[in-house]
Every structure is written in structure tokens, then in C-alpha cells.
Amino acid sequence: MPDAQSTPNRPPLPVGWRRSLARLPILLFEWPTAWVFGNRLLLLHHVGRVTGLDRRVVLEVVERGPADRSWTVASGFGPKAAWYRNLQADPRTRVQVGNRHYTVTAHFLSPEDGAEIMAHYGRRHPRTARRLCAFMGLPAEGTDAGFRTAGQVIPFIRLDVDVEPQLP
């Protein structure tokens, strides 16, 4: 079974205009237009491990918990993504979903949990799941077994609400 460290085909982090394009949704969260994303995307605040500065990243919600008390996200760039490593150092943080703000705690899920989540995601969004697998250099066969294998490699994080929504 492949693991996140040994997968050679991890996509490179975006640079230049691609990085600017990837960060564009952050601006939409800053304006009162975050509602356009509904519950599909969230803005994650995280503290830089070295700088201590507030950092932000927009992530796709892979799975929502009951009554919007938790959200599961995936690190498409693997465990070396800055936001992922920052959450490992300090799992208590804030998220914005739509126009609501929450204080959350990050819980890093096991590869077995990741396999279940990815299989469920693949059934709900087969084309997007295949594209994600192909982007990450994983087999993109589009079967339940293929999604489970990919889910064991992709790091998943569940963000559980600590307190009720806050004002921005």
C-alpha cells in the first residue's frame, strides 16, 4: 500500500499566477460574498509554525458532520502542506463557513477512516474524485476499491466545533 511520504507523483505547489488564482477565493471570503460557496468550501485560519502569523487557506469540504458541528477536509498536497503542518503544531483554530465563523479543533484521521471517507466521496462526486486522484498521481480508475486506496494515502482532517458561531 502506498503512503503519503513515498508517493512520488505529488503535485507541485502552485507558483506564480497559478498561486494567485488558487488564493482568489480567500478574497471572496473577506468580502460579504462568502455565501456563494455555501457549505462546499471553508476558509481555514492557521498560525504559522515559524512566524506565528495568521495564515489562511480555502479548502473543499469533503464531508459535513450532523448539524454542521464538524467538517472534514483533505490535504491534496499531502502531509507536507504548510496548513496541515501548522494544524499539527496547533490544532485549535478558526474556520469560516459561508458567513459564519467557528472555533474548531483539528483531529487527524487514520488511513482507514480516510479510505471510508474517500469511498463515500467517490460515490457522491465520482468525476471530481477521479480528477483529484489523477491530480495527486494516484490511480484514477474510479472504482470503490480505487477510492479506498487513494483515501489511505490522502491525509484527512476533521474540524470539530468548540463553540457556537462567532461574529466576524
Key terms:
168 residues; alpha+beta; Pnp Oxidase, Chain A; 5 helices; globular; disordered N terminus
Largest beta-sheet details: 7 strands, antiparallel
Give the amount of beta strand, in percent. Answer: 25-35%
Low-confidence stretches: 1-8
What is the strand arrangement across the widest sheet? 2-1-5-6-7-4-3
Q: What shape does the CA trace take?
A: globular
The radius of gyration computed from the alpha-carbon positions, rounded to a whole number of angstroms, is 16 Å
> How many individual domains?
1
Helices, by number, come to 5
Q: Averaging pLDDT over every residue, what do you get? A: 85
Order of helices and strands: HEEEEHEEHHHE
CATH topology: Pnp Oxidase, Chain A
Report the CATH architecture. Roll
Folded structure, characterized:
- By secondary structure, the chain is an alpha+beta fold.
- Helix 3 packs across helix 4 and helix 3 crosses helix 5.
- The N and C termini lie far apart (43 Å).
- It has five helices and seven strands.
- Helices cover 33% and strands 25% of the residues.
Question: How are the secondary structure elements laid out?
Answer:
Elements: H1 17-30, E1 41-47, E2 54-60, E3 63-64, E4 70-74, H2 82-89, E5 92-97, E6 100-108, H3 111-124, H4 126-135, H5 144-153, E7 156-161
Antiparallel strand pairs: 1-2, 1-5, 3-4, 4-7, 5-6, 6-7
Summarize the entry for a quick read.
The protein is an alpha+beta fold and about 170 residues long.
